[in-house]
Structures are given as C-alpha cells and as structure tokens.
C-alpha cells in the first residue's frame, strides 16, 4: 500500500492548544494520543523548565529532536512542543506518515494564554522577545504544515471539528488516513 498518513501532528506556538485539543481530537477521531513534551520529561527525568534552566534551550531542542525522531507510532494524534519545528530532521521524520496541522493564533492570543512565559520552559535565545520568537517561528510552522487552522475566536469544540475536517480533507487526497472509511 502507498504511504499511510495515519497520524495527526499538531504544531504551533505555546498556547495554541496542541495539548488540550490533541486529547479532544483523539477522542473524537478514535485515535490514540501522545504529547511529546511528556515523552521528553520522562526520557530526561526532569521538567522542561528545569532542562532549560539547567542545561539551556539548545539542550532542550536536542532532546526534543531525539525524542521526535525516535517516535514510531501510527493511529495517533501527536501534540508536539512549540519548538519542534527547529529540527528539519524531526519534521521530515514525522511527515512520513502524518498530516501536519499548524494551529495558527495571533501573538496577542499567545500572550493571553501563556501568561508569564519565563516560567513555561520556552526554548528561545535569552535575548529573544516573544514577538521575535513568534515571527521567527511563524515561517517555520507554515513551511512544515500540510494544513493551517486559524485558532482565533474559536472555542475548543469548534477547533476540534475544524482540525478534523481539514485533516480528513487533506488526507483523502492521500490514502489510508483515519481508518477504512476514508479509503477508496
Ligand atoms: N480554542 C481555545 N480557546 C480558548 N482557550 C484555549 C483554546 N485552546 C486551548 N486553550 C487554552 O490555552 C491554554 C494552552 O493550551 P495548551 O493545550 O497547553 O497549548 P499548547 O500545548 O499548544 O502550548 C490552556 O489553558 C487551554 O485550555
Ligand atoms: O515553544 C517552546 O519553546 C516550548 C513549548 C512547550 O510546549 P507547548 O508548545 O506545548 O507549550 C515545551 O515543548 C517546551 O517548554 C518548549
Ligand atoms: Mg503542549
């Protein structure tokens, strides 16, 4: 059979809803769920914040790349961390059998949702502002996305429906996504 695009990978800024929407989406689509931030924490035995504080943001990116490249699942919704897109290798690996969905929210909404970002283990250069980070990443999220879902002014249920619809439409152009009902 041709490549089965049977995972949904969520990418986007912190606060875009990857972790919370990922669970809802998995329930709605009868898929399993994995949050790669939790894999990083269990892999390293510490919180993301303590990795950034103790070893620096580049160490977090290296661990994240390793965890993403070792991920070998099918039939999952995969919530990534906001910095996943800094690894070309990891994104190419995920793309092999996944639809990549970018949850696109504004900088204002990022600020509202994440509050004090210095406590959130964000992987960024020390001098980098949130605005700089937003601009730098927006291009990366767009580049790797198969589908972009605008997340402004929508509640979680609306987002979930929209992601599912967009991912299914996109995947139906390929084969084998979300089970037999979408196969020709
Ligand atoms: N569509 C939405 N509308 C309002 N709040 C949301 C929405 N999606 C997520 N949130 C909230 O935003 C916060 C960050 O969500 P989270 O899933 O942790 O984002 P991420 O994993 O992308 O960093 C949580 O408090 C969550 O409840
Ligand atoms: O954007 C980032 O640099 C990060 C986002 C976090 O995940 P969420 O995007 O789920 O908040 C987590 O991976 C880590 O603290 C780094
Ligand atoms: Mg998250």
Molecular structure report:
- With 184 residues, the protein is an alpha/beta fold.
- It has a single domain, classed as Rossmann fold.
- It is built from eight helices and five strands; from the N terminus they run βαβαααβαβααβα.
- It has helices at residues 18-29, 36-44, 48-55, 57-70, 88-95, 107-114, 130-144, 156-172, and strands at 7-11, 32-35, 76-79, 98-104, 147-150.
- It has a five-stranded parallel beta sheet, with helices on both faces.
- α3 (48-55) crosses α4.
- The longest helix is centred in the C-terminal third of the chain and has 17 residues, at 156-172.
- It is globular and about 45 Å long.
- The chain starts with 6 loop residues before the first strand and ends in a 12-residue tail after the last helix.
- The model is unreliable at 180-184 (pLDDT under 50).
- Magnesium ion binds next to α1.
- The site of adenosine-5'-diphosphate (ADP) has 16 residues, from α1 and α8.
- Its EC number is 2.7.1.71.
- Its main location: cytoplasm.
Kindly summarize this structure in a few lines:
By secondary structure, the protein is an alpha/beta fold. The chain is built from eight helices and five strands; from the N terminus they run βαβαααβαβααβα. The longest helix has 17 residues.
Q: Catalogue the unreliable spans.
A: 180-184
- What fold name goes in the CATH topology slot? Rossmann fold
CATH classification class: Alpha Beta
CATH superfamily: P-loop containing nucleotide triphosphate hydrolases
Shape assignment = globular
Protein name: Shikimate kinase
Cofactor: Mg(2+)
Pathway: Metabolic intermediate biosynthesis; chorismate biosynthesis; chorismate from D-erythrose 4-phosphate and phosphoenolpyruvate: step 5/7
Catalytic activity: shikimate + ATP = 3-phosphoshikimate + ADP + H(+)
